Automatic annotation (TrEMBL):
InterPro entries: CarboxyPept-like_regulatory (IPR008969), Plug_dom (IPR012910), Plug_dom_sf (IPR037066), TonB-dep_OMP_SusC/RagA (IPR023996), TonB-dep_OMP_SusC/RagA_CS (IPR023997), TonB-dep_rcpt-like (IPR039426). Transmembrane segments: none annotated. One of its GO terms (molecular function) is siderophore uptake transmembrane transporter activity. It is found in: Cell outer membrane. It is a multi-pass membrane protein. GO terms for cellular component: cell outer membrane. This is SusC/RagA family TonB-linked outer membrane protein. Its main location: membrane. It comes from the Bacteria. It comes from Arachidicoccus soli.
Length: 1080
């Protein structure tokens, strides 16, 4: 062929050829063919939208199958991409949606509809050390819909999970902002007095973490949360006995950078403050008490007739009662001090990347002031997660996080009071409404006329608010997780990985308390009960009068070496997992106190003049675990499912001979909806699956090194001996009884489950029945061991308890038309247990209090109320029929309560012989959740509600009387206004004086335990993209959230308290917050 020169120009995909010299026919034919092919390359236009809402998905990544290049959709979800006839498949990915492939052959414009991951049965679910297809799960695993909790402004992530998962309970020790919140799964059992207890295991990115670490997470940095309920948690061995919460944090996705910013502001206030007696009612209650106590004779003017002078101080005279009756002289001090608090939250993140490197960087800030001035809590968090493909099959990742949390409260440490944060609520609720905390600017020493107790009364919250007395805690948590994985060449499906996680926690709790000068006033009124008068004396009351610091440091590492193998042959799928895991942790802390604070000095121990060594202490602890883990999953055609797990754990908490334990599980599933006999005859089933699991777990629920003898070194009661004339020398003494034979708590978990879906997956049902056999439970046998032993008894493997229950969940979601959609989810759970063997005192064996063979919850144990003595005639008639009858040593009097005499000895006593179980259950064992959501175009509403029943509630003793039972000057709930007096014999409540008679557990104080509330409401509106895009914004969404929205039922008399919190506890809080989320 003759060579000739030519010029080739390519423009807009069209090849243009200019011959400079004549060319042969063969070459011309080849060139023309190339020109024809290039000319067929074309541009495809399209849009990526949500299947349900039709909203464009900004930032969706569109690529040609098998090609590395890609484009990103704009703010409306629109894209353009050049293809050739050979490029017939587009691949689309977007965070939170199922990866989608589309055939574009013969099309110039495509609309690609993507399904949310939560709507597809082929979803993957995060489980222990990996993930599985939802269809292939053989255990009981629930997931949290992150979109439903992403807007909640909470300092504790656990609080956001209320009503989200069946069988998951939220345990709140206090409603106080920053207070601890825990989670329990199903019905955990634990008898140990120390050790791990019944807490849930928390896993973050396959690393064991603490409940505190979990609560510090922000919803916007979380990809998924899974709850492992049954044998699924067996892969965690000794830590998984009580179930596991497994969290995956977000990673970067391929595509251009995507920014998200959310901010909200709101308020939090009490759902209800307690209703207490008015000043007149309280003073009248006190007079009625004293009239009975001292057998006063009251004349027509309201004065005591013939009384002893020393008794006069306890009597409220008519002029004083008239003063208290004036509303202007009454103050609800709790309502005055408890004000709405601000709640602020900001979170932002950016993510993106390429085929080589992907990243996610996020930060959050949450601040919640307390409802008392000068008290607040906040947290700040940062996270960076980077993944990089260094070579084919070789990937490294680094996940860094840093969180700072801070809380500040008032420190209440007046002499004799319990060091409790709730002293503010207690003192404000119980103070007499007529009292004055300040007179002429001077703090007033409040007088208690009954027993001279001044501790609770003189916690002056308003004085503390203007002081620098505090208890505060500052904590830093730093975590670094590095991982490298490599796909072994030559063995398809085999991957090796090594990960190392280091967690460091620094804490700096500190308490600072000074002393205050109070002034005692003479008082006004005939008996000096009206605040005012002249100053009698100045009294200095110490509030701790010390500086205490308790810095602590903790570090823990986890090293994992992992091998995974995936193999598909025909319709058979096999997945194997093997892990070597090593964990060690070290803790150290110091307690240092110094007394004698210099008032004008700083909150530092250098500004004290008292003792600095009497309360010094330090602590140190070190422990480790070593584990070997294996798991095998097999399925045939996604129809027949099998899983086997093995784990061997070693713990330093147990003696060397019993240090290692073997745990594991087996489970199976059968997807009947894949069988032809179901498809052909019951085609309405989209899913019908049976599953069963059997797991063997355990726990090292004992004090570390409890197998070793411990000694104490010192003098006097702390050790040593007495020589000569009472001189004490240094020495040592044994402090425990070691148990070298202690071994693991053991647990056998059984679960049977049924999963169904109908009507194109719009209707779903899940049911589970579980039975857990807990044996060899470590417990201290204190009840059956004589007290004369003189030492703390060791934990022994003794207890046996069976726990069981069932869970049912039903869900429905549907579109009414292109604008309207809705979803409804309801779940029900019931649980109980049976004691097989427990520590029991010899005298109780065979009695009504012997729970062996019975449920641990036998109901409320107390006295059976049979009536109130309302008239003297009733008392006389009763005593004639029951001569010598006494109630707690007291001959019956008018205004007293009477109880059933079970043993017929004419005596109601406190020795248990007249007590019985008064109800079927004490706690609610039935729980029902009902959640629903409605969407109209861009507007959506989601509601979480729930109820529980089956137990029996009782008005607690500290609300029947007061926190100091015999201090009658402390206020009481409003229902006490209707108490027995000679003029009110048909009263609902007894005479005030007979506290020993009525301040006992009895069915007189029963109220319904039924509970129903709308827990959370979330309303959001997404601005249409055609509007937001004009501002260059991919998405904009406004939202409003209300938590603890509404109590639907209050069983307490006169609704004097919130059903969920007592009158002496920090009130339950209702929050309203408004926010905006912007995507760029």
């Amino acid at each position: 062929m003759k060579r000739e020169k030519l010029i080739i120009k390519i423009k807009n995909g069209i090849m243009r050829i200019k011959l400079l010299q004549k060319i042969s026919g063969g070459l011309l034919l080849v060139l023309l063919s190339c020109s024809s092919l290039l000319a067929q390359e074309k541009e495809i236009n399209g849009v990526v939208v949500d299947q349900t809402t039709g909203q464009g998905l900004s930032g969706a990544v569109v690529s040609i199958k098998g090609e590395p290049s890609n484009v990103s959709a704009d703010v409306l979800g629109k894209f353009k991409i050049r293809v050739t006839p050979a490029d017939s498949i587009l691949v689309v990915s977007y965070i939170g949606y199922k990866r989608t492939q589309v055939n574009i052959a013969g099309q110039d414009y495509v609309t690609i509809k993507m399904n949310s991951e939560s709507q597809d049965l082929s979803d993957v679910v995060v489980v222990g050390y990996g993930q599985q297809k939802k269809i292939a799960l053989t255990g009981s695993v629930s997931t949290v819909d992150m979109k439903k909790i992403e807007d909640f402004p909470s300092l504790n992530l656990a609080s956001s999970l209320v009503g989200q998962v069946n069988g998951l309970s939220i345990n709140t020790a206090t409603q106080r902002p920053g207070g601890a919140v825990g989670l329990t799964i199903r019905n955990p059992q634990n008898l140990s007095k120390n050790g791990n207890g019944s807490g849930t295991l928390y896993i973050i990115d396959d690393v064991v973490r603490t409940a505190s670490d979990f609560n510090l997470l922000d919803p916007n940095e979380i990809e998924s949360i899974s709850v492992l309920k049954d044998a699924e948690a067996a892969i965690y061995g000794i830590d998984g006995a009580n179930g596991a919460i497994v969290v995956r944090t977000k990673k970067g996705e391929i595509g251009k950078p995507k920014f998200s910013v959310s901010g909200s502001f709101g308020t939090a206030n009490a759902t209800q403050l307690p209703k207490m007696l008015t000043g007149l009612q309280l003073a009248t209650w006190n007079n009625d008490y004293n009239q009975t106590a001292n057998n006063y004779t009251i004349d027509s003017a309201g004065y005591i007739g013939g009384s002893v002078t020393k008794k006069l101080a306890a009597w409220y005279t008519p002029d004083e009662l008239a003063y208290f009756a004036n509303p202007a002289n009454n103050t609800d001090y709790l309502a005055q001090a408890f004000k709405p608090a601000n709640v602020e939250r900001i979170s932002m993140n950016v993510s993106g990347g390429t085929n080589k490197v992907r990243y996610f960087i996020g930060g959050d800030y949450v601040n919640q002031n307390s409802n008392f001035s000068g008290v607040n809590s906040y947290k700040v968090g940062l996270r960076a997660n980077v993944e990089a493909n260094l070579a084919r099959g070789l990937m490294v990742s680094l996940n860094l996080s840093n969180t700072m949390s801070y809380s500040r409260n008032f420190w209440y440490k007046t002499s004799g009071t319990t060091e409790s944060l709730d002293q503010d609520v207690t003192s404000l609720a119980e103070v007499a409404p007529w009292q004055k905390y300040f007179i002429d600017g001077n703090p007033v020493l409040l007088n208690t006329s009954y027993n001279g107790n001044t501790d609770i009364d003189n916690v002056n919250v308003f004085l503390f608010e203007n002081s620098n007395n505090y208890t505060k805690s500052l904590n830093y948590v730093m975590n670094a997780l590095g991982k490298i994985s490599y796909e072994i060449p030559g063995i398809k499906g085999l991957t090796a990985a090594v990960s190392f996680n280091e967690n460091v926690n620094f804490g700096f709790p500190k308490q600072y308390g000074t002393s205050f000068n109070y002034y005692q006033y003479s008082g006004l009124g005939e008996n000096n009960h009206i605040p005012g008068g002249t100053i009698l004396k100045e009294v200095n009351i110490k509030n701790g009068d010390r500086v205490r610091i308790t810095p602590n440091y903790a570090t823990v590492y986890q090293l994992d070496g992992t091998l995974t193998y995936h193999k598909t042959f025909g319709k058979n799928h096999l997945n194997l997992l093997g892990i070597y895991e090593q964990t060690e942790q070290y803790n150290e802390g110091v307690n240092a106190e110094a007394d004698g604070v210099i008032i004008t000095g700083l909150d530092n121990q250098n500004f004290t003049i008292g003792t600095q060594s009497s309360n010094q202490a330090s602590s140190i602890a070190e422990s480790g675990k070593l584990s070997y883990i294996g798991r095998a999953n097999y399925d045939y055609d996604n129809t027949y499912l099998l899983e086997a797990v093995f784990r061997r754990d070693g713990s330093t908490s147990l003696p060397p001979a019993n240090r290692y334990g073997n745990f594991g599980s087996v489970s199976a599933g059968w997807v009947l909806s894949n069988e032809h006999f179901i498809k052909d005859h019951f085609s309405f089933f989209d899913l019908l699956k049976l599953r069963a699991s059997l797991g063997f777990t355990g726990s090292d629920n004992t004090v570390p090194y409890g197998y070793a003898q411990a000694y104490q070194y010192g003098t006097g009661s702390g050790g040593g001996a007495v020589f000569n004339e009472g001189e004490r020398g240094l020495g040592i003494k044994a402090t425990n009884i070691p148990n070298p034979y202690a071994t693991w708590d053991h647990q056998t978990k059984t679960d049977y489950g049924l999963d169904m879906a109908f009507l194109h997956n719009r209707l779903s049902f899940t049911g589970d029945y579980y039975w857990n056999h807990n044996y060899d439970l470590l417990t201290g046998l204190s009840s059956s061991v004589p007290a004369t032993i003189g030492l703390t008894t060791p934990n022994e493997n003794y207890g046996i308890i069976n726990a069981f229950g069932y869970e049912l969940s039903v869900g429905w979601h549907d579109n009414i038309d292109k604008d309207w959609s809705y979803n409804v989810t309801s779940f029900f759970s019931w649980m109980d247990d049976k004691n097989i063997r427990e520590d029991l005192a010899t005298g109780l064996i065979g009695t009504i209090q012997d729970h062996q063979g019975k449920s641990d919850d036998q109901g409320v144990f107390g006295y059976d109320y049979v009536g109130m003595f309302r008239t003297q005639a009733q008392v006389d008639a009763f005593m004639t029929a029951h001569p010598g009858y006494t109630i707690f040593g007291q001959t019956p009097e008018v205004g007293m309560l009477n109880y059933k005499d079970l043993n017929g000895d004419n005596q109601i006593t406190a020795d248990g012989n007249d007590q019985e179980y008064l109800s079927h259950k004490a706690s609610n064992h039935n729980n029902l959740g009902f959640n629903f959501g409605v969407t109209f175009k861009s507007l959506s509403i989601n509601v979480v509600s729930g109820m529980s029943w089956g137990g029996q509630a009782v008005i607690p003793g500290n609300e029947i009387t007061s926190s100091v039972a015999k201090d009658i000057t402390q206020n009481r709930p409003a229902f006490w206004a209707d108490h027995w007096t000679p003029d009110n014999t048909n009263a609902k409540y007894p005479a005030p004086y007979w506290m020993s008679d009525y301040n006992v557990t009895s069915n007189f104080w029963f109220v319904s335990a039924f509970s129903a509330q709308i827990q959370n409401v979330n309303i959001s509106y997404t601005i249409p993209q055609k509007w937001s895009s004009r501002a260059g914004i991919a998405s904009a969404r406004f939202y409003a959230v209300c938590t603890n929205a509404l109590n639907l039922f209050n069983p307490y008399p006169d609704n004097y308290r919130d059903p969920n919190t007592g009158i002496l506890q920090y009130p339950n809080l209702r929050t309203f917050s408004f926010g905006l989320n912007i995507g760029l």
